[in-house]
């Protein structure tokens, strides 16, 4: 797990400039997914949570990703029809991607 923690810290650090501002939103969104998937270890999660308390842009990105995930979960829970085999492509098509 230490290997993951080292990767997380390094990747997390590279999301920010020297002044501590979020500069790599795409990479940060990937880290958010790891946190939301409960794949981040305790130390990594603590670093993450501390940063989103003090950085408005980081907090906004986290809350946005979390809200999207919750909305998708609600939609899928309410869906009673058959789920397509190629769900990812079906979702992309439905949102014009």
- Tally of separate helices: 5
Task: Give the end-to-end Cα distance, rounded to a whole number of Å.
Answer: 36 Å
How much helicity do the residues have? Answer: over 70%
Write the element-wise H/E pattern from the N-terminal end onward: HHHHH
Tell me the count of domains: 1
Q: Output the structural class.
A: mainly alpha
Please tell me the overall pLDDT. Answer: 85
- The strand count comes to 0
Rg over CA atoms? 16 Å
The parts where pLDDT drops under 50 for at least 5 residues are none
Estimate what percentage of residues fall within beta strands. Answer: under 5%
Largest sheet: none
Your description of this structure?
This protein is 70% helix and 0% strand. With 97 residues, the chain is mainly α. The protein has one domain (1-95). It starts with a helix and ends with a helix. The mean pLDDT is 85.
Short description:
The protein has 97 residues and is mainly α.
Topology at a glance:
Blueprint: H1 2-13, H2 25-36, H3 42-54, H4 56-78, H5 87-94
List keywords for this structure.
97 residues, mainly alpha, 5 helices, 70% helix
């Amino acid at each position: 797990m230490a290997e993951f923690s080292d990767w997380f810290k390094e990747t997390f650090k590279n999301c920010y400039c020297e002044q501590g501002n979020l500069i790599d939103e795409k990479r940060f969104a990937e880290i958010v997914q790891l946190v939301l998937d409960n794949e981040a270890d305790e130390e990594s999660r603590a670093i993450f949570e501390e940063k989103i308390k003090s950085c408005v842009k980081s907090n906004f990105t986290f809350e946005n990703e979390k809200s999207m995930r919750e909305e998708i979960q609600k939609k899928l829970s309410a869906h009673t029809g058959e789920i397509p085999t190629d769900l990812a492509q079906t979702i992309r098509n439905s949102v014009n991607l």
